[in-house]
Amino acid sequence: MLPLTLIRRPLTPAQADAIMQRAWIVPACFYAAGVAAALILVALIALGVPALGLRYGLAIVCILLVTFIPAAVAYARAPSRPPTVTATTTRQEERTVTELMITGDTTFSQRRLAGFTWGVSGVLISLIPLSFSSSTKNGFLMSLLACILIVSFLVKQTYLYFPQPRDVNAQKLLLIPSGFAFAEKDLLPRLKMVDWCNVTGMGETVKGMTAIHWAKDGEDGVTWLRLKDPGLSYVALERLINYFASNPRRRRVLGTETGVDVVRALLRGQDPDAN
Fold first, then answer.
1. How do residues 91-148 score in pLDDT, each as one tens digit?
2. Minimal CA–CA distance to 64: which of 128, 118, 131?
3. Which residues, 6+ apart, have CB-to-CB distance to 218 below 8 Å?
4. Claim to verify: residue 143 and residue 200 sit in the same structural domain
5. Is residue 182 part of a domain?
6. Which of 52, 61, 170, 234 could be a cystine partner for 13, CB 3.0 to 4.6 Å?
7. Cβ(35)–Cβ(87) under 8 Å?
8. CA angle (274 as vertex; 176, 264 as ends), nearest 5
9. Is residue 240 exposed (0-12), middle (13-18) or buried (19+ Cβ within 10 Å)?
10. Are 200 and 216 in contact (CB under 8 A)?
11. Domain housing 244
12. pTM of the prediction?
């Protein structure tokens, strides 16, 4: 997450969550800069500065501000959208295997993708009159380029304009009785596996990277995880890891559909063993 990657000092899970609860500051700063740029352009135009590019620059800034409003709202509200917990049952070598999956909310990723696509399309269209003002040839080429790109996206990659949850990569945490696997949401997705019996606890977060401490065969180690989806709580993750790391007998529930309720209770801060 952007706010955490800018902080070099170690953060406890509670401190990291507190910063993410103020996630609205990030889009607010970007929009403040955009509005300031728009006001400067308006002032220059009102003063009669003879530059045609000022009007088109103002149009581009306004287009970007409008198209990214849904993404900004989704980012600001992300901490209030908890991840989903599901159970998947498959058949493997004549036995039934149930795995639990924690999936981060994709609302922000969807709206960010749509905002980028609509913003680029709007900018291309706004540049057509500017191109014609320089020469008919440039205007024709810009019109052709904009038409080809927008039509090809609408026909072949419609999801770019109207993305669904399946169209974006969501960060996932796989829970099984033997351990957990964390899928890093990169261009080349990586799977980091940690065994419950080796976990000693969750550490601090440094520059957006969270430490998972483990010990095996007398050797101490650290696996670094990066929570890239807003809405995944650091305190909830610590509570989840500490619970199953310190309760070996309860790990079996992760191989059953009943485990969904247990994991949801832990993420909400409730006692999963309460009657």
1. 777 777 788 888 877 787 788 888 888 888 888 888 888 788 878 888 889 899 889 8
2. 118
3. none
4. no
5. yes
6. 234
7. no
8. 40
9. buried
10. no
11. 83-105+172-268
12. 0.75
